[in-house]
Amino acid sequence: VHPNVSQGCQGGCATCSDYNGCLSCKPRLFFVLERIGMKQIGVCLSSCPSGYYGTRYPDINKCAKCKADCDTCFTRNFCTKCKSGFYLYSGKCLEKCPDGLEANNHTMECTSIVHCEASEWSPWSPCTKKGKTCGFKRGNEVRVREIVQHPSARGNPCPATSESRKCIVQRKRCQKEGKGKKNREEKRKKSSKEESKETRQESKGRAARRQNREQRENNNKTQPKKRKAPNKGESLAPVGAAH
């Protein structure tokens, strides 16, 4: 230690010197040596810089250097990130991944190989030819499936997602679109006419029944009431005669 030791230090130092920088740190801070040219200067930090890991002791907390292939580490024997050209696997930095694993160049880690997975086949489609389901005897039918898991770089590739096969159907004529539409329109008009005719006939019938009912009521009002015939043994008295 340089004889010029000071107690009034800055930047988290507990003791320091003009030549060596920090000689000891305040509680919970880590002591680390930084190289400046040919000289090393002690500094006190709240956490260790990249390439170092922290160790705590009763008298001092220090930052120790990671292995040469580690960019960051938890301890000297457990890396958390590797330097360029190395792949991380179980805390170690490897140039080549073990068997059964593959190198992920995005995360720079050794990961498990993922194979492609496809869903079950769908049912066969209707038998068609040139997009039609009629007017032919031999056609094609297809079925499809979906990819549910895409493979990794070294995984098994995906299989075909569609299949086609020949099919035979009972030949039937295709109904012309224009003719079929015309027939449907004629049927609709005919149905409308029949409904209108029935409605008119019902209206005429109701009108005729109402007219007959009114005529009977008028006839009953205009005709004189018939006198009741006398019983046997009774004599008819002239109208207006006193009893």
Automatic annotation (TrEMBL):
Residues 11-110 form the R-spondin Fu-CRD domain. Signal peptide: none annotated. It is found in: Secreted. The keyword Lyase does not apply. GO terms for molecular function: heparin binding; signaling receptor binding. Residues 116-170 form the Spondin-like TSP1 domain. GO terms for cellular component: extracellular region. PROSITE patterns: TSP1 (PS50092). Keywords: Disulfide bond, Glycoprotein, Heparin-binding, Repeat, Secreted, Sensory transduction, Signal, Wnt signaling pathway. Its main location: secreted. Residues 169-243 are annotated as: Disordered. Residues 175-219 have a biased composition (Basic and acidic residues). GO terms for biological process: positive regulation of non-canonical Wnt signaling pathway; Wnt signaling pathway. Interacts with the extracellular domain of FZD8 and LRP6. It however does not form a ternary complex with FZD8 and LRP6. Interacts with WNT1. Binds heparin. Interacts with LGR4, LGR5 and LGR6. Activator of the canonical Wnt signaling pathway by acting as a ligand for LGR4-6 receptors, which acts as a key regulator of angiogenesis. Upon binding to LGR4-6 (LGR4, LGR5 or LGR6), LGR4-6 associate with phosphorylated LRP6 and frizzled receptors that are activated by extracellular Wnt receptors, triggering the canonical Wnt signaling pathway to increase expression of target genes. Also regulates the canonical Wnt/beta-catenin-dependent pathway and non-canonical Wnt signaling by acting as an inhibitor of ZNRF3, an important regulator of the Wnt signaling pathway. Belongs to the R-spondin family. This is R-spondin-3.
